[in-house]
Structure formats: C-alpha cells, structure tokens
Protein 1
Amino acid sequence: MKDINGRFEELYKERVELGLMHETSGGTSSTAASTQQGVDPRPPTSSLPTEEAVYGRGEDKKEIIKMVSSDKPIEANFGVIAIVGMGGLGKTTLAREVYNDKELELLKFEKKAWVSISDDFDVMRISKSVLESINPSSSSLNSLNEIQGKLKEKIRGRKFLLVLDDVWNDRESLWETFKSPFKDSARGSKIIVTTRNEGVAVTMRSFETHKLKTLSDDECWNLFMKHAPSTGMDTNALGKFRERVVKKCGGLPLAAKTLGGLLHYEPKVDAWENILNNRVWDSTNGDDILPVLRLSYRHLPPHLKRCFAYCAIFPKDYEFNEEELELLWMGEGIIQQSDEHLNLASEYFHHLCSRSLFQKSSSNNFKYVMHDLVHDLAQSVFGEIGFRSEEAISMLPKNFERTRHFSYISKHHDGKNMFKDLQKLKSLRTFFPVFMSPYRQYNPEYIDATIIFNLLRHLKKLRVLSLERYFITHLPNSIGGLIHLKYLNLSNTMVKSLPESTSSLLNLQILLLKDCSRLLELPSKMRYLTNLCHIDIKGARSLKGMPPGMKELINLRMLSNFIVVKEKNFNLNDLRNLRFLKGELHISKLENVSHHNQIREPVLKNMKDLEILLLEWGSQSDGSPNEEVERHVLEMLKPHSNLKELVIKCYGGACFPSWLGDSSSLSNMTILKLGKFKNRARFAFNLDVELT
C-alpha cells in the first residue's frame, strides 16, 4: 500500500509538471481570478472592426444611433447610453458598429475616443487613455490633476463621443471623479458604456439603456455556418442539425462562432452527433463557463490543450502577438521544435485561432486577444499551477507549493511587496511581467534591485525569465546558476553587457535583447550555448560585433542581426553553418571585410528558409571603399533562390555581381531595394521596386 501511495504521489507531481490539471479546478491563484475582486486593466484600444460581417444587430444598431442622435433634454452637457447584456452577446461588436457608422459624421463630433475598461476602474489610467486618444502629445503627464486638467481644456466647449467598453465599476465616487473634466463640454456629447451589470447603468445615470437580446434562430444559424464547413456534408444532413445547433448556442454569437469552429474540423455526421450529444451540455460546474467553450476545449488534441491553458498567464484583455506567445511555449518546453517542423509553434497558434479561441485585436492587426469568457476557460484549466498577481502586494495562493508559473502586471515601480514570499515557490518555472500600455523609451519601468540580485538566485528551476522594460544596467553573475533557463528576455533594458556566467546556461533557447540601445558586447563564450534557436538583437545599435564561434550555434532558427568584426576576429564565414536561419536577416558592418581571401566560398546559399535579407556597409576608416573587395563580398553573399525581399545599403563596389541580374537566381523575389551608394559617380540613383 505504501508503494502504491508513493506511485500516486509521483503521478500527481508529473501531472502538475505537465500542466494536465483537471478542467473543473477553479482558476488561477491570482487575487483577480474572480470577478468580484479582480483587477484587470485593459490597454487603450481603437474601434476598428474585427468582423467581416455582423449578424442580427441591424435593429440594435439603429436604436443606439437614434439614442446618440437624440437632443432630449438632460441635466448635464453629455448623456450616458448603456448597452447591457451577458458575456458573449456582442456588446463590444455593436458599440464598434455604431462608433464607425457614417451617419455619425452628420452629428459633427469634434473629439472621439474609445477606451477598454474591464474590472479595474482606474480613474487615472482611463483619463490618460482618453486624453492620449484626443491629444497624443500629452503622454508625458503622470498625475491625475495634470491629466484631468489638460483633458478639461481639450474638451471644453467641444462636442465629443466616448466609448467605455466593458465597465464593471458601480462605485459612484469613482464615476464622479472620472466625469468631472467633461462637465464643460458642448451639449449633445455622448458616452456609450457597455456592461454586463445593469447596476453600472444606474451608477452612471444613463439617460438611455439598451438591453441587448440574444440572436434569433436564423441569425444564430447563419453565424454558425460562417464558421462551420459547407462542404463534406449534404444539405439535408446539415438541415437535420439546425434545430439542435441553435438550441445549444442559445442565441449567443460567441457560442455560435466557437461551435462552428469546433465542427469545422469534423465534416462527418457521426462526429457532429457525438459532439451535440455530449453530456457536457447538461453539466454544471459551479462556474460561468459556457458549455460550448468547455466542449471546444475537450475536443482539442493534448498538445493544443497545453498551449491554450498556458495563455492564462496573461491578464484579461491583454493583447499579444503571435511570436511572443510562440516563444513562451518553446521556453516552457510545451513545444519542441525540430528540423522537420520548423513552424510547429505557428501551426499550433493558427489552429487555436481557427477554433475562435484567439481573435484579432481591434486596435492592432498584428495582435490577438482572448474573449473574457475564453480567458475564464483557460484560467479554469490552468488551475493552481498558475499564479497571476494584479495587486501592488502579492499574497501567495493557499496551495502555493503547486505553483509553477508566476506573472504580474507591472505597476511602473515594482517594489519588494510585489514579490513577497516568492522565494517559497521552489519549483517556479516562469517569472513574467506583463505591461498593459505601449513601451515608451523615456518612461522606463523600475524593479527593486533585491529582486534581481537576491530573489532570482533562489528560483533554481526557472525556465522563463523576463525583465524587459526595466531600468536595469547589469545583471549578477548568479544568473549563470539558473541552469534550466530556456527563455531570457532583457529587451528594452539598459544593460551594457551580459555576465560571462550567461554562457553556462546550456539549456537556453531564446535570448531577447531587442532595443537594448546601450548593449556593447555579447558573452565571449556564447558559442557554448548550442541549444540557442532564437536571438533578437534588433535595435542594439551600440553592439560592436558578434562573439567568436557563432558557427557552433547550428540550431539557430532566428538571428535578427549579424554584425561583422574585422581582422583577427573576422567572423562572416561563421554564417555558413547557420543554414536553418529563417525569416529576416540583417548583415551589417560589411566594410570590415578587408581582403578577398577572407571569403572564399558562398555564405548564404544553403539558407532556403530565409525570406528577407538586408546587406549593409558602413564607411571605411580611411573614407574610401575598396571597390573590388566589396564587389567580391556581394558575390559571395548570393542568397538562396527562395528569397522574397533583398535590400542593399551603402554598397561601394565597382559593379554588381552577375547573380543580381539573373532572374533564375532570384525567381521568388518580389521586392528589391538598392540605395545610398558610396560610389555616387558610378551609381547616381536609388532603386526601390516591387517585382511582379
């Protein structure tokens, strides 16, 4: 019996390590895990529509526009219109439709702004978001008094339209403080509020409230069919499922899209029967997660379940880009790249998109976001292995010994209390700050030095460590003791170099040093980090060159820049070994090649996955280019025929190599840019063309 109990304990630990928590386990240990206590600040978003077509909201849209156009007498100069409805009904989509309607142009709003709110009605953050929307030059203001004073000045006597999306606050005092700058606006101004709670409309004293209803059966079916397959099943078979599908969706647009995305991958009648007859539709788990979302999760293959659940480290409404999430998956070991599957992470990401679990951001076409209810699902299945802090003082969860992943929303100055007792999390794998506003170079974030120099050395099992954006000038040598580390992000910090002990991180796969403008050098023994597959040093403009032995890093898939060094440390030939590089590569300081015999063989010919190549020369120390050497260098840098875009800057050769004029050598290239030639007498032109 003792042996059996011991084996059960081992299996439980393995389940926790793998992230295979029971899907009804209640959510993360963050103080914001519940809607009652949570603080989920949303980033400023625009009103750009994300849907190609909106189903069943034509009459609702007309009604809201009528309210916006109303000149009905009200006590204040501005009127509040509330759109009320449960999660997943499409309140935000409806508000976007109204905000972008051309009919509003006739109302001549002088100022327009859109702000996402979520759980935390932070008056200063929201006021600043509104101000930056109507006056971007005001971003340097940092006190509530300054911000609201400037906002009042910009709004005074002007007619404005403001959308506050997803409001939960029902504290009248916060609302009274927020609205004070708008009192001197022009009559006819409007504030549209979307909320799940009708009490919010009362608090904000809305003069009109529009209760959003569910979609009709026809509208729900049409939306479902947009996301489900129309082929592989005859019309009669589809018709038999119609009644059951619309009943399961309950008139919720989110449910219709999610179920359609799920059945998109199941074109057979039997598969549809099994999904629609699943007992999960009738089960209750004491939470507000839609059955269709839970079912969609259950039908994910195991590898996608882990990828999806991990997204709970982000707070609600956090906008992430594809590469950011894929690199985190790799850093956690959730995804193992291989030579045969270079784009495995991307495949997984787009599978989750196709199932409507991720959706395009409305403010940035390159970013994605999860619907609140989808985020609740991720949080539910992530369980106690994730601890997300959104308070200035972090309190460890009750069962903290199970915690593997720690993320937190940065508060600009992150002190000791943010990380209180974190050293107790002996098995912690993730240390990840989240920033809810765009990066600004002259407004850095700060973290208590004791966290970097004392706390981190105790977290021996870390796999993912991010310190991006913090005003950090150097790191302790103890970082070399984090031997399990796979992901290190120091982007937008002030580091000038990395400790030599960094070369001991033999498991490191991802090194992010983007926009480290003061970085002068990389570790001299970086060649020992043979598991590296991603190095981003874009924007590290002070970096002198690449360290010796780069040719040993044969697993590199992404290298943003390769900086050539001269004389005895000449390293351009190292690139020849890095044949798996893909995407974009910038080779700079090519003027450091001083002799023909330094490059005797083609360097890039085996890089078949490279799509964009930028070749750049600087000025010679004596001011004059070596024409023959530069021509020879360009000859040896002939890319693979798969290349799509080529940029050549500051070239000083006597002529161009033959391959540049050979259509068969560049058969897939669509963009060619040539410019800033040193030899202006010979090349008195710039070329920037798209090839068809």
Protein 2
Amino acid sequence: MANNNEATPISTPKMPKLVDLDNLPWDPIDRIRGGDSFTIKGFNCWNKTESLVKHVGEINSHHNRALKSCEDLVNPKQNIEMAFHKQDDVVRRANRIRLNATVSACRFCLKCALPFRGHDERETFLFKGNFLETMDLILSQNEELRNLPKAAGNNQYKAPSIQKDIATCFELEIFKSIFQEIGDDVFSLLVDESSDVSQKEQMAIVLRYVDAYGLVKERFVELIHVKETTSLFLKDAIDTFFAQHKLSLGRLKGQGYDGASNMRGEFNGLKARILEVNKSAYYVHCITNILSQALQRKNQDIVEAASLVTSTKEKLQELRSNGFVLILEKVSTFCGEYGIPLLDMEETCVNSRRKRGNITNRQHYEVDCFKTIMDKVIIEFCDRFSEVNTELLENMIALSPCKSFSKFDISKLMSLSELYPYDFDSVERRTLEHELNFYHHNVRKDERFANLNGITDLARVMVETNKHKSYPLVYRLLKLALILPVATATVERCFSSMKLVKSDLRNRIGDEFLNACLTCTIEKEALANVKNENVIARFNKVHRKGKLIPAGLLENSCWFIASSCCRIIVVFLLNYGCYSPVFGAELQQFLVQNFSSFWCRIAAVFGADLWPISSCNWCRIVVELMLFFIKGIAICSFI
C-alpha cells in the first residue's frame, strides 16, 4: 500500500531543444507544406476540395485575416514606416529652417569677431547677447520662420553647444576650400608665436601658395596652443598639423619665421629641424621690421625683397667705409648750433682709467666704436641672409618682367633650378633651358606682358593667357619663387585678430572654439564663399542628432523597429506556417540570423556611428521585445 504522506513527484515540462536546420535529415519545409506541389509542381488530382473551402472560411477567418495582413504588408501606403516618414518630413523641414537661421546668426558673429553669449540670456532681459539678439532680428524679418510651430526646448538650435558645433563646421568648410586650392602643389610655411590674454603660448600657422589663377595667397590655417616654445616641441606640433590635414613635408619649399633663437637657430632651431627632412625648404628671414615697412604689403614678391636685400648690403658696406665722416660732420654742426664743446679728435684718447693711450680720439671712435658696431650689423645681416639664400634671391631677380624683361638671364635661372633637385631632374632641366629660350622670345613680343610690376603680375598674366600650359617648367620655377615668404605681416595680423576674439572679458574661451572663431574672423573672403547648405550638411554628419531627427522620433524609433520585427515574423509565418514541430527553433534561428542585416538597415537610416547599441537605452527595449517574440511564439507553437 502506497504511503499517502509521500509527495507525488511533479513532472516538469521539458523545453524543446534547438534544432540545427543545416544538419536535419529531412526538409522542414516539405514536412510543413507537404512538398512543393502547391507552389512549384502544381496539382490536378485533389479529391478533398471541400477542405480548401473550409480552410478559407468566413470573412473574419484566420486565412482571410492573414491574407489581409499580407496585402497590408505589401501595400506601401499603409506601411507604418511610410507613415512615420510623412510625419518626419514636415518636422525635418521645420528644423532645417530653424537651423538655417542659426547658421546665419553664427556667420554674422564669426565675421565680426563678436562674442556669442550674453551676461543674462533670459527672455525678460533687455540684451541677451549678440547671438540671441541676432536670432531675434532674423525672426522679425523672416515670415516663414515666424509661422513655424514652436519647437521643443531642446530642439531650437540655440544652445551654446550648437553654436560651437556650427562654428567648427564653418572652420572645416574654410579649411576644405584652402586645401583644395593647394591640392598637391608646393607651398611655404610661416610660423610665429605669441601669448594671449590668458598668458597661453599660441603658435599661428600660415600657408603661402599660388592658386589656380596665378594669385599668391597667404592663408591662416591653425592656432596651436603650445605648452613649450622649444624648437622640438614646435616641430612636433607642426608634424601633427601636417598629418591631420594630409600635407606633405616634401611639398614644403619655403619657411619664414621671426628672429627668435628657438625659431631661427642654425643647429637647434625649427629651421634646422625642417631642413633635416626637406633640403629644399629654404629659409628666408622675414624682414618685416629691418628693411622697410613697405614689405608688409600682402602682394610683396621675393624679387622686390631680393633687390632690397642686395641694395641694403651695399648701403651697409658704404656706410661702414664712409659713414663716420658724415656722422662726424653732423655732430660738429649740432654742437656748434647749441654751444656744446666739441672734442678734439686729434688729441690722444683718454681711457676709462684716466690714462692716455697711444691712439687718438678719432681712431677710438671710428675704429673701436663705429666700425666695430657696423661689422656686427653686417655679420648679423649676412647670417640672416646666408650665401645660399643670397644666391637664391639673386637668381630669382632674373624672373623679373620689369623693363621688358631686362634682367632675364638663362644661366641664373638654370642655377636656380639646380637648387631644387627634387622638383627638376636632369631631363627636365635640359627641357627647361629650351623652354626659357622660347619663353623669353615669346613674352617680349606680347603686349600683354608689357608694363608688369613684378613676378606676381607675371604669374597672373601667364594663367590668363594660358602660357602656363605652354611653358609648364617655367611656370613651375616661377611658383617656387613666388611662394618664398617675404614678411610675417600676415602672422602678425593673426595675433591682432586674436586680441579681438579672446579679450579680457572673454578670456575663458576654449582652444577649439577660439581656433574656429579666429579662422572665420581672419579668412572673411573664404567665409563669404561658404554656403549655409554645406554647413548644414556637415552639421548633420558631426552632430549627435544625426540627420535632423525631429523630437519625438526617438521614442517612435522603438515602434519603427518593432514593426520591422513584426514584418520579419509575418514573413516567417507565411513561409513556414505555424504548425511545424521545429517552429520555435526555426523562428529563433531565423531572427538571430536576420538581426545583423536588420540592424544594418536601421544604421543606414540613422547612422551607425550615431546609434551604438551599448549606449542607447531604447535599443535594450528592442532587444527585449525581440526576445519576447521569440519566447512567446516558440512556447505557443508547442501548446
């Protein structure tokens, strides 16, 4: 007799095991559908036709409802995805109009070097800052913007982070135009450093190049905050800049700095470190404050500077030889007018210890003082303009078109080409010699080349007359002469603009935002050529909101993905049926296999880099939703 106190064991239902569809001994599709008679082969001997009629049933039968769902699935007008797109297009258009107004307001503030923020940006405050006041002005003049429905608080495109992103987009568009102009052509580098109002050391980089129209341009491209001002640290910063913008040091054919030791030093300076990498990156001392203020002109070319250097050397030598007599005469006249006792220059000189020496006063002041100082000046000048640089400048004078190319000299130009061994090989140098003969004969008889003021005008006219294509090697040599830097005036202007952008009242501006504002303020011409559409397109790529996704679509995305999951399941049901003995395993495996392609589709709509699975809470909801479908339908198939 059984003991009634003993508990009867309860049998727990076993969960079905997943079946490997690839290694099944039979085809589950044939088991479910009864073969391919209904789909491929056809049938003509069905003896139970009433079963088909019974299966179809009434209007609300399972068959008719499944048929209606399938038709709705195929019909694009009733697709939930299409309904979302219709609603999103309206919201997206409104957001684009708002963003366009924000871009215009940012353009105005950047162009005028105005601060964006205000002390108090509340609506009740009289002055909310330059940016918001400009937005109000645009709103008052734009009827289409006024008629838009009020956007959500975080979707008005007025936040400071949006302002910084748009300023960065303007900066990147300006850089894009500059580097497209440079292309793979040669250029030179101008660098200088200065401290801002926060006592941060800032290094300004300017590139000098010749554009497609033969015009010389000097463009500001970067302001780098350097923690150290040593030549090694500056060289590393320049290398990082070149790598970031995909510039080649091999295309660098000139460098210009001020006279600071860490920039110009022969052994440890930035000049020497760049020359170690590229021997053709010739250093030309920027003579902004040495020779003449006229060198600060933007259109100053190297031939004019070369003539000034040559004449300055001659004047210094002449002043050393005959200058003391002229100075002595002026001093004697001055002392006579004002009754100042004049020292007898023929008397024996008395030194600082009140002892008479063996030299006269004239010898002391002329030899020991005047000529010693002049020798130091001449040595320093020759150090700034070395023998190679002097030869470079003197040879470039032969390119001058002044006075009907009176200084043209083929031998000097051939010597100039030999200083650039990586730009002219032996074959091209032989070809260059023939080109120079034809070029000189041609341009002297062409009236369009008469009365030119310098090689800057020569390059422009050569492009206008297409002679740069007829004489490409001559034009290449001309560009190498044009890109050599003459003065650091452009770099100094950058620091002047920096004082406007980063002032005492705006001293907490970040380095990235400062760089963007400074680029737009200095390069006003390039800023004017940037279109709002290009800024909006770049903003869509870099901003976290992606493709102007309207507010509300974030939560609707779950329904969009859920509907796509449902569509996958419906297709599965229509293909495999719902009474398969391996339905749960097949459904689970089917959804797992299709999830990657399904996610690629979502990533193509919203941007894969903007919507990573691990960082979105709503993605976890979708995963749970898919697991719910898998478990629920799998369990139901075995009931």
